[in-house]
Amino acid sequence: MIDDTEVETTETLTLRLLNPAGGANLGSQTQATLSITDNDVAVPVPSAGSLQFAQAAYTANEPDGEFNSITVTRTGGSDGEVTVQYLTTGESTATAGNDYTGASGTLTWPAGDMSAKSLSLNLIDDSEVEALETVKFTLSNPTGGASLAGQTQATLSITDNDVAVPVPAAGSLQFAQPAYTAGEGDFELNISVTRVGGSDGEASVQYLVNGATVGTDYTGESGTVTWAAGDETSKVLSLKLIDDSEVEATETLNLTLLNPTGAALGNPAFATLSIVDNDTASPVLNAGVLQFAQATYTANESDGELNLTVIRTGGSDGEVTVQYNTTDSGTALVDSDYTGGQGTLTWAAGDSADKSLTLKLIDDNQAEATELVTLILETPTGGASLGSPIHATVTIADNDETVSTPVTPPVVTTSSDSVTLDFMPQ
User: Fold this and answer.
1) Sites in the chain below the pLDDT cut of 70
2) For residues 108 and 142, what is the distance between their CA atoms, to the nearest angstrom?
3) How far apart are CA 273 and CA 182, in angstroms?
4) Cα-flanking dihedrals φ and ψ of residue 66, to 5°?
5) CA 391 to the chain's CA centroid
6) Is the distance from CB of 424 to CB of 408 less than 8 angstroms?
7) What domains lie within the chain, and their CATH numbers?
8) Could you tell me the pTM of the whole model?
9) Which residue, 54, 112, 263, 374, has fewest beta-carbon neighbours within 10 Å?
10) Where does residue 175 rank: exposed (0-12), middle (13-18), buried (19+ CB within 10 A)?
């Protein structure tokens, strides 16, 4: 066996029997293995170690000034001197020179040194009100055989310590509410415009009113409201309602703010005013409808008189009248066959009783065919109207018999060429 100085793993030597001589034979075990264990010890390989940030995230306050809490560690070896560079990345939101200084440089470890090293960083305490800002660091370019491992990037979050000074504001001008309702009899209105969010400087806004009827329903069509510097009180528009006696539906006024000066126009800048009428409609009078109770009547010449009925329906407000008269379409003759074919019927207020007109029949001894009298209603008064039927026809049956007249036989005169008949009167 050769005892060398090389560090080796266990080695094996295989021995085998072969080619027996002199008539000998090989048995079953013709092969054997020899394991050779090394007696050399490995000399440790020098290691410079690995470099990384101690943690991934750090926090600081703007007035902290010099900030030494960001550290880089060396682990896994300390052979030889090593260095690493640190610098900020473009992902940082803080600004070098305004928010911090010293965010880049080189950290050095002598041989055998494994202590943590701090980055050189100074925070600048300005008076600017800022949101949370960040500085992002990265490690690069290790030397001396060291390597980068683990956490090679870290983020520092810087909390601002400045308080925002309120910026003077003129405010916004707007209606106190988007919709108003008033009764016509309210007269004075309380439609107000407010100034919110500030009162710096003088401010004004114009208002314009349209809808309904100016001068009839309201006064104060348009105008301007003004606030002095520091004034935040609500301003009431100069509008007044006119309480008339006209029955009206609810009317709407449209109110618009426009042309603000010294301030902004807020919301709502448009409002509506609903004006509810306070007048009661007078009851609608209904004088009713006048018409014949029926369209046809029959009578005998000997009846003496005939009553035709006119009715009032659908209302009885007020006194009403209607005229009746005969028409030219009848075959009976006034004063020969009848009298009383014209006149006026009257109903008092509240009266809806039936009214009769009387037709007097003349009973002569003249044999006649059946005759007709046609009457018409016309010229209603008092708001009444004519219904249907407004015509009535009276059929008058005759009660006289026809008398036969005797006929005298004619005298016959003849000649040679003619015959003459002479009728003699009786």
Assistant:
1) 43-44, 402-426
2) 10
3) 7
4) -70, 125
5) 61
6) yes
7) 50-159 (2.60.40.2030), 172-276 (2.60.40.2030), 289-397 (2.60.40.2030)
8) 0.38
9) 112
10) buried
Distance (Å, rounded) from C-alpha 362 to C-alpha 360?
A: 7
Torsion from C-alpha of 72, 78, 83, 84, nearest 10 degrees: -40
Record the tokens describing residue 333, joined without a space.
Answer: 């003759």
Predicted confidence at residue 41, as pLDDT, reads 80
Range 195-216 burial, b when 16+ CB lie within 10 A, else e = beebbebebebebebeebeeee
Q: Among candidates 305, 315, 288, 310, which has minimal Cα distance to 390?
A: 310
H helix and E strand count, the chain: 0, 37
Residue identified by tokens 């009428």 is 277
Altogether, the residues listed in the chain come to a count of 426
Q: Strand 320-326 relative to strand 100-101: parallel, antiparallel, unpaired?
A: unpaired
Strands (E), 7-159: 11-16, 31-36, 50-53, 57-61, 66-67, 71-75, 82-88, 100-101, 105-109, 117-118, 121-123, 133-143, 147-148, 153-159
Asked if 273 and 255 count as a contact pair (C-beta separation under 8 A), the reply is yes
Tokens read off for 30: 């013709």
Q: Which of 41, 100, 271, 66 minimizes the C-alpha distance to 173?
A: 271
256 token code pair: 């618009």
Residue-level pLDDT at 387: 95
**How far is C-alpha 3 from the geometric centre of its chain's CA atoms?**
100
Torsion-angle region of 64 (φ positive above 0: left; ψ -120 to 50: alpha; else: beta): alpha
